Batch of 4 targets.
Target 1
Amino acid sequence: MTAIVPSAGLVLPPGGGRTMAAAAQHVTFKVTGAHSRAASTFEVVVPPGFDVGAHTHTHSEELFYVIEGELEVLAFEPLVRTPDRWREWESASGERAVRAGPGTLLFVPPGCPHAFANPGGAPARVLFQAAPPPAHERYFEELMDLLAADGDQIDHAAVAALRLRYDVHQLTPLRYEPPCG
């Protein structure tokens, strides 16, 4: 599918764009494949207790910019890809997962293992870009449908099948364990 590029730019007011929400995630589509041939851009609210799980993409690259709140993040090849607890991974050069606050930028080239989680008590807001479009747009639409249908429970088999269709190769599980209270 070829992206349609309008002859004018795009200006969105704060809060503008198409929003999809579930307990485990809140995504606002800002720039889509209908606007850009280069990348899709989203604003994502990551609730406390959400862990995307470590994963890779064969063909796409991603950029994350923390606007508000804090996340734990990583973007490196670990010495050992253990099937759980990516926060304990370490790279050959000694890199480890880090706490990312406002202003932190994470760039992920194709093939690079990466992950983020919100272990804190407040939501984090992230500007997220995926290239090329529009695969991640479709992925988010289907993921949000799965997350909304399951409430606090995640159908891991359905998420795994969805991720394989969209070049998301899961290394550790996606989790959503909201804090009590």
Target 2
Amino acid sequence: MSGFGVRVALSEADRESCFAVRRDVFVGEQGVPEDLEYDSYDADAVHVLAVRADGVPLGTGRLLTGEAAAVKNGGAADVGALGRLAVTKAARGLGVGAALVRAIEDAARERGLAAVDLHAQTHALGFYERLGYEVYGPEFPDAGIPHRAMRKPLD
């Protein structure tokens, strides 16, 4: 889909747009408690934002690095953690999610990381598999939603 762009959220307005998308998708649609959705990792994460040509936010995701990522990926220092990937209902199926994942992978490469790890809701496994991620480990609940760990090496 043309008509949208993806960028690292550097301004406070961009970050607020990221949080608004997450509120709509995770809290509003999926019933995740707001106190679980926002965490201490948000302060240092690399947030990415997809926006329509007219500035309307379409999706977001974040990359954790260093100790924050190691907590999520089993301790690997050279593996980033992709998380909080959310696309607004109106923008689903338009390629926004894949573009956000590519932007997060690019940010990980720029930081010298060897791979990206994520915890996928089980209904989204096929989406991530098409982008080169492989499942490992057992299913586990996160905010009451079944998840699986996945990883993709970066070239």
Target 3
Amino acid sequence: MQHDAHTGHEHTATHEGHHQNHADHAGHADHQNHAGHHAHHAGPGKASWSMAAKATLHCLTGCAIGEVLGMIIGTALGWGNMPTMILAIILAFFFGYALTLRGILAAGVDFKTAFKVALAADTLSIAVMELIDNGVIALWPGAMDAHLSESLFWIVLAISLAVAFVVTTPVNKWMIGRGKGHAVVHQYH
């Protein structure tokens, strides 16, 4: 009889444990949906071409602003091709980071954290974009010597930015798919 009573106690404890596990599991259902929501935005392997294209367009905007401004300043100061290109690249990075910083700071993040996130999110993307963009301009006959008032300058700039966009989008897709690049920024939106 003592043995039966002991078995009944174990059964009750097991039954209560089962209910506790079930309650814990129910709590995890929401957690899994929440985790799935974040995985949709930035989880490893979940990057869409649309997300990558938006991230690339974001970087392209900053790069284009910096490049054009660098060309205008370099030309206005009478600088040669190389110093003007260096200034344009520096400004491209500056404006690329600035656009990302603006969005992260608007989410209420402190500047130091926002700056680290912007560096992590944009450095490779901007570097690839600048390499392709400036490579096209440097290799295009006459483009380096074209002035801002010439259509050749603007046509080659547009083509170089388009090529940079096409090449950089898969890079961003790869980075976002691994939780890097602009995937880091998504947690602050």
Target 4
Amino acid sequence: MILGGAGKVSGAGKGLGKVEVRLKWDPSPLGETPRHLDIIAATYSADDPHGRPVYVVHYDSRSPDGTINMSRHSRTGMGFGFVEVMVVELHRLAPVYGRVVVGVAIHQDGTPRTFGDMSNAGVVVVEGYRQLLADDFSQVADATAATVAEFTRNPSGVWGMREMVRGFHSDPVLFTAEMGGSRR
């Protein structure tokens, strides 16, 4: 179930090349089960950009060609800034791919948690030193998963990004199937 909206577009001109999605959150209070968030990317074919993902990348995987991978992963948040990082090398993606959607899901171990239950959660998307997006998930506080950005390739092969903070009431597995669907 989708909860939010979409926003501005970035990457005009020469387009985007190598971007990083960085995620932070504080650890659980003493005595509670660990709070665990994950960055997830779904890659779609140029022929069917809103269909089923061709492949999904998360903490336990990488893209078949190595263009999307996790360079840092955390199961607890640790509270030391951005503790989970996914690298997306758009400029290296084969022309058969036309869209990549990136989101964040909360592991639901025991007590159900939403972004509103997370302390100091945030995500940024950067290309080099340029920040393309920053969000604290407050607009999707009741959600258990959220998309954050959509990267699309235009007909001339240039990649751009659209801010796409939308909340979902899904576990991580269902979220991977829903996250790239058309807006309703």
